[in-house]
């Protein structure tokens, strides 16, 4: 048995993917054998949260402390160097397969009361491949408890063209971004990207630009999808997020293990920005019995 548990393979046309039992994570995705995301071995821990689902919050909570419903809570700090609670509670857990077809796999996880998060959620993930449209991921959460619960989710794939980012063009379809401090906690108010190094609305060479920031004010197509694109003149890879995800964290992998450093862009669809449990920005309150869902995906050419 590998460290990440069972490996669920799916395929359709030129696309193939591997989803792991641990965390319900996307470990690999390719088109015609060409990787579309940074991958790792089945017996390795996912480096820099690669491919993981982030729930019931994405990114960071400042010192793990927040208030909700008039009560104060304190989550275990698991980013010790910055004194934050990071990336939720389910990315290391064993998920149960609830259906596996050649092109699709569905997994579920029941999150019971946890230190600092005394709420109960039923979570579900579906990964589906289409020969024309590539990968679609659907994430859903239902409050299976007896009281309202704070909720947000995100995902952490690194899209790649198999070459250094400095040689690629990047498009980020966003009008605003959040500046962050040295502990990666964002300031409250979003800034306009115009006139800053963070403006990639038209698509341009990334060069040596370093990014680790949340973006919002997303431009969407007729289907309500916002697209992040990485291109090199020959190939492209694009991640889309639906309207359930008004935020994108973009990370140029500058502080990752050497083998993946600036080899892919962390393009992370999020339902809320970092530290939303503290600020309340786009935080979802799930009433007992209520459900929330959203979709994102990746395609290559």
UniProtKB/TrEMBL annotation:
Q: Which InterPro entries match?
A: Aldose_1/G6P_1-epimerase (IPR008183), Gal_mutarotase_sf_dom (IPR011013), GH-type_carb-bd (IPR014718), YihR-like (IPR037480)
Q: Which SUPFAM superfamilies match?
A: Galactose mutarotase-like
**Native organism:** Actinoallomurus vinaceus
Question: What name has this protein been given in UniProt?
Answer: Aldose 1-epimerase family protein
Q: Which PANTHER family match?
A: ALDOSE-1-EPIMERASE, GALACTOSE MUTAROTASE
What top-level branch of life does the organism fall under? Bacteria
Q: Name one Pfam family in it.
A: Aldose_epim
């Amino acid at each position: 048995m590998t460290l990440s548990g069972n490996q669920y393979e799916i395929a359709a046309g030129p696309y193939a993917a591997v989803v792991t039992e641990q965390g319900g994570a996307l470990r690999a995705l390719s088109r015609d054998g060409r990787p579309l995301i940074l991958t790792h071995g089945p017996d390795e821990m996912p480096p820099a949260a690669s491919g993981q689902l982030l729930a019931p919050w994405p990114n960071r909570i400042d010192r793990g402390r927040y208030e909700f419903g008039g009560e104060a809570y304190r989550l275990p700090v698991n980013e010790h160097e910055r004194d934050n609670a990071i990336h939720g509670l389910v990315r290391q857990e064993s998920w149960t397969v609830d259906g596996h077809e050649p092109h699709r796999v569905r997994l579920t996880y029941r999150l019971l009361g946890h230190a600092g998060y005394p709420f109960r959620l039923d979570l579900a993930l579906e990964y589906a491949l289409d020969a024309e449209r590539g990968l679609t991921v659907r994430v859903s959460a239902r409050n299976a408890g007896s009281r309202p619960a704070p909720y947000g989710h995100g995902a952490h794939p690194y899209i790649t063209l198999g070459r250094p980012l400095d040689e690629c063009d990047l498009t980020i379809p966003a009008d605003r971004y959040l500046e962050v401090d040295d502990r990666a906690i964002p300031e409250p108010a979003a800034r306009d990207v115009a006139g800053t190094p963070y403006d990639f609305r038209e698509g341009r060479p990334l060069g040596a630009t370093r990014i680790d920031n949340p973006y919002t004010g997303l431009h969407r197509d007729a289907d309500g999808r916002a697209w992040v694109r990485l291109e090199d003149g020959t190939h492209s890879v694009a991640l889309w997020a639906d309207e359930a995800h008004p935020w994108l964290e973009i990370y140029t992998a500058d502080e990752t293990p050497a083998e993946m450093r600036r080899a892919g862009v962390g393009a992370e669809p999020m339902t809320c920005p970092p530290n939303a449990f503290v600020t309340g920005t786009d935080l979802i309150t799930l009433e007992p019995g209520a459900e929330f869902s959203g979709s994102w995906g990746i395609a290559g050419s």
